[in-house]
Amino acid sequence: MEIKKARSLWSGLFLFDFFTEKFMIKNIYFTLETGKRIPFMPKKDIYHDAVKQALIREGWIITHDPFHLRYGGFDFFIDLGAKGLFGASKNDRHIAVEVKSFLGPSSLQDFHLAVGQILNYQIVLRQSEPDRKLFLAVPEYIFDSFFSTPFGELAVSSHRVNIIVFDEDKEVIIRWIEQQTT
């Protein structure tokens, strides 16, 4: 009988990965070597690189990939942080961009999850970087089929969600939609 080495050991809330020598307790990773905490990194959206390239093409400088914030004992990872020079004064403008593909079985469910995430990011950004504007980047076909519906427009406006509409094949930004702040 052949004995195969297990990659990881899982016991309730504890996971140990033998290959990387890291362990996780309640979604918090630690290294075996130092015992230091490593924030859990979510998987990149499939359109992450397309949006990144589209921003670069428009003259943005990517400053964070991902943009990590820590607040109230929680780690937040917004997909991208960027800066650009705008206006006659050439002042820096800082943005954060969360990329969403909306590939789930229900666009409405994907929307609920995305808006909840955006609202939480807005709260943390207001506390830590109030001058940074947050955008939700969505593919053009999702914008046309969901965000441009009466419900989509009302929800985006009511929650003050800034939108970047992008073409995932050409890796270009089609449209910026910024909500007015009160």
Explain what you see.
The protein is α+β, with helices and mostly antiparallel strands and 182 residues long. The chain has two domains: 8-38, no CATH class; 48-177, Trna Endonuclease, Chain: A, domain 1 (3-Layer(aba) Sandwich), CATH 3.40.1350. Helix content is 27%, strand content 37%. It contains four helices and 13 strands. The strands form three sheets. Strands 6-9-10-11-12-13 form a six-stranded mixed β-sheet, sandwiched between helices. Strand 10, helix 2 and strand 11 form a beta-alpha-beta unit. The radius of gyration is 19 Å and the shape is globular. The chain starts with 7 loop residues before the first strand and ends in a 5-residue tail after the last strand. Mean pLDDT is 81; it is low at 1-16 and 23-32.
